[in-house]
Predict the structure.
Amino acid sequence: MINTDILIRARWIVPIEPDGVLENHAVAIQSGRIVDIVPSDEIATKYRAPEVIDLPHHALIPGLVNAHTHAAMTLFRGLADDLPLMDWLQNHIWPAEAKWVNPEFVRDGTELAAVEMLKSGTTCFSDMYFFPEDTARACLEIGMRAVVGLILIDFPTAYAQTPDEYLHKGIALHDDLRAAELVTTAFAPHAPYTVSDGPLTKLRTLNDELNLPLHMHVHETAHEVAEATRVTGQRPLARLAALNLLQPNLVAVHMTQLTDAEIESVARSGASVVHCPASNLKLASGFCPVHKLLQAGANVALGTDGAASNDNLDMLGEMRIAALLAKAVAADATALPAHLALRMATLNGAKALGLDDRIGSIVRGKSADLVAIDLSAADTQPVYNPISQIVYAAGREQVTDVWVHGKRLVADRALTTLDEAAVLRKAKNWQEKIAGADKRR
Amino acid sequence: MINTDILIRARWIVPIEPDGVLENHAVAIQSGRIVDIVPSDEIATKYRAPEVIDLPHHALIPGLVNAHTHAAMTLFRGLADDLPLMDWLQNHIWPAEAKWVNPEFVRDGTELAAVEMLKSGTTCFSDMYFFPEDTARACLEIGMRAVVGLILIDFPTAYAQTPDEYLHKGIALHDDLRAAELVTTAFAPHAPYTVSDGPLTKLRTLNDELNLPLHMHVHETAHEVAEATRVTGQRPLARLAALNLLQPNLVAVHMTQLTDAEIESVARSGASVVHCPASNLKLASGFCPVHKLLQAGANVALGTDGAASNDNLDMLGEMRIAALLAKAVAADATALPAHLALRMATLNGAKALGLDDRIGSIVRGKSADLVAIDLSAADTQPVYNPISQIVYAAGREQVTDVWVHGKRLVADRALTTLDEAAVLRKAKNWQEKIAGADKRR
């Protein structure tokens, strides 16, 4: 008998590596890591643990990885919907950000986002926003995994005045987080159209040493690509390639406008793509050619984008939309089957963020970032194939338990490290201030 | 003081007619009908009722109308996913139907569907399936509103052998239901490619007298249209027009393949279209031009289709996908705004089914088919605009209470007229039988 910390017995385990479903298996966890996966009826003969959890109607999956969001923007959820992109940005989002975004906003917004993400099975998110120090601090307190983006943008904001100041603050934060297990960093140059060649070159030089992911909005809209071509004579992706940024570290978000040659070059470069279907649809940005990218061998992950353009942070819902949409875009009902959508939302996300040695699948040695989904409700009955039910039929309310690095952050649908009522009170306070000021009300 | 049966006070009421949101209003209900809508602080001075319900964090909306489903097929949910349409139909769904569909299957499947639909805010559904007598009986017992389709198809099934037998059984069921308030009927010729001219002409003659809705799959896939054109020399819609079926009673489901001229002629005819976005995406059928249809003046309703091709019956989710997808298809972020998506899922559905004098909006004299959605969870906070939150952010789990014709069928998330545990037990029994037989397992 081996002593360990936690044993979890589940009706189904979907390890992602390898493909498929393990029926009636159990996971043994020690010091935050997965130490074994064995049939449930053998676990008691091999391991002893103070905490044994039974999930008799549940599927246990790796924690979902939200590879692109702006967590603090959850405080702007639904502030300005059904508007053209530029009206939305220029008349609502940017003025609201200029007026309200400060460290307190970022902390409170990140906490609200964390409530929603954890309760819907997201254990790790890749963030891009101002005051990433406060995002990082909130995640460390909560015990949630995150990759905070070291934001870089040409124009001044409340957070920094010059590209150099953004970079200096980013490097300082990166240094502060060196010892953190759960919170890591990525460079986050906002987009080709908001960061000029000088800062991008400086960032690349810095990254030759640091080797961080480069988290960037790329080819989000046709307008962006047309404008860049008009102004610079190059499509943004060609410019990034010329700047030596199209390489395995690049995490290119959206990518709705791609020629077949660009799809090939992205795949060849080893860069990752983050597909954000709900946001792309809502802002009428276009359709990311997910099936073609996957067929070309590119690593495609999934993100919700911010709640101001989605309007939720629900990765189960995002997986479902991604799996449905890819079939229609490819005109092929076999495109992006359920198991592949689940892989995009877990292992591919981990890979994009450079974390696939730690998370993204249920294998020995990886962190115990795990999510239990109860499939016994009418909405997911009967169960012929648990992966189909998870991707096409399950809702966020069927997530019952969530572990990050072996710590149970959601237990029977309740948060263990966040005071949900207090988070909601703070969100309501922000709403009253912001709604009073938004002209549209 | 006027005596009435029920008073419901809500933080927000979205009446659909007129557009907009009423804050802190109340609805008075008597004998199943809405008798008044007044500010909450006036209700107690005008009305007295034995049942007073407070919904302090909720939006009260008209019951959702699922304008196209095959309820009993919920027992096949997830049986065969990610397959091309013809493989799915010919090798999985049709063999499963041939083997299993009988009155007991239809009753048990309809009950499972009703659990899911009621708990997610659907109060009325338009069904197309075999043994509609059993669907009708189940709905009458539950107290749920339904329009059962009088199925007509050329080929023999366990339900009927010839087109005439289908029609005779349909007329008999229609006669049986004459006195029913909650369950009405529609003719349901399956599709242009499965019903020939003879039976369609007979149906039309019968309907000159009965004036029922004509619920039919039309232009679902490019293949259907191409095959029909090859075999008959006509596109299916042109054939229906020649048979005098393209008129206000027609409820044309799917309609993913439409020329601009067809969009005009559908709008001019007064026919309704039922958009089923999840099913169209999942089967890679194509994109219904919802924005163009609405702009042309057509009545467009929403449906989930059956759970075998969705894989849920969640109209909140369907509204969200419809609102998101229409923007990308129209390349216009202002296309199908949230309030219009909610109208499609309520009043437009009622109109398609010929029930807009009874349901579809919260106005005096209509039936009290009402749904309460609690917006206080983190997922829908903050609330700048309740309609945005309902369409883009709310999940089925936020539905707390549902009334059909004044009867509370869901109270605090629990069903009052269905034994949910018994329904789930029966679903599990079917699963064991069906999974054993499906070759794919």
